[in-house]
Amino acid sequence: MTPSMLNRTLAGIRRAVPSIASLQVNEHGRVAGRYYGANISSVFQPWRAPASEEMVAVEACARSYSKKGEGLSPWQHFADTPVDSDLVNFDRLCRTVHVLNYFTAADNTHPLVLNVDARLLQAVPERHGEFFGKLLSLLGVSPENIFIEIRTIHQFDLSHLRQILASYRKSGFAVAVNAEGNLHARALAELLRPELLMLDAMGFSPDELRRQVSSLASSNVKIAVKRIETIEMANAVRSAGADWVQGYFFDQPCITVVDKLAAAA
Predict the structure, then answer these.
(1) What is the pTM for the complete model shown?
(2) pLDDT one-digit tens code per residue, 169-205
(3) Contact between residue 100 and residue 31 where contact means Cβ atoms under 8 Å apart
(4) Cross-strand pairs, 214
(5) Cβ 249 vs Cβ 230: under 8 Å
(6) Which domain does 180 fall in, by range?
(7) Total domain count for the chain?
(8) Rounded CA separation 156/90 (Å)
(9) CATH number of the CATH domain containing 89
(10) Is the dihedral of CA 13, 19, 20, 24 positive or negative?
């Protein structure tokens, strides 16, 4: 997408969605949004196939930037706010920024993974994915190219979570669900059948992680393992049969991922 086309697209979004009207193109040619004094833009981290290390998807993360400082995750700025509507608007802004930065930089075929926090899901009572689906239609992006990553908590009501997944799927999205521990992972796999079940390698030894991934093999759900930081952890998930892997052992989150994809396209 050329700069002039991108600016016309941003103008159309501002008219259609006033709550995210702060979108702009920064000095680096990236889309950013301003929210409560923070400049919000994107970094991207690949998901890879364990054996070949081929890229299978790209996850977007929000970063807030200042003229003096490095990019920081902005979520802590909003973690303690009592106003759920602020969090909903912030989440929508972040996802719009990510989609624009990703799909306008390269005509790529890798799915984009976008996070949605449990608190935000609880703040929106129904019709999850409908707003975002309409926004994607403005951008000419199919929801089939998006994985919605849901960060669950143990206390989350499973019947409500099942409704949320059904709503996103109705809008055309694939759904990834984060698990907290082995029992929680098996319950989510069996009761929700997500397109992708995500496990966190942090805090596990390689042997523990291998056992956990292996124990889920019979669930017939794709397993993704994140925060892999050593070769021992990488070998553990490879031997256990994980489908996707991610972590600093493979890649650091950065803005140049989409540039590399564009160069290869």
Answers:
(1) 0.86
(2) 988 999 999 887 777 888 888 888 999 999 999 988 9
(3) yes
(4) none
(5) yes
(6) 3-264
(7) 1
(8) 22
(9) 3.20.20.450
(10) positive
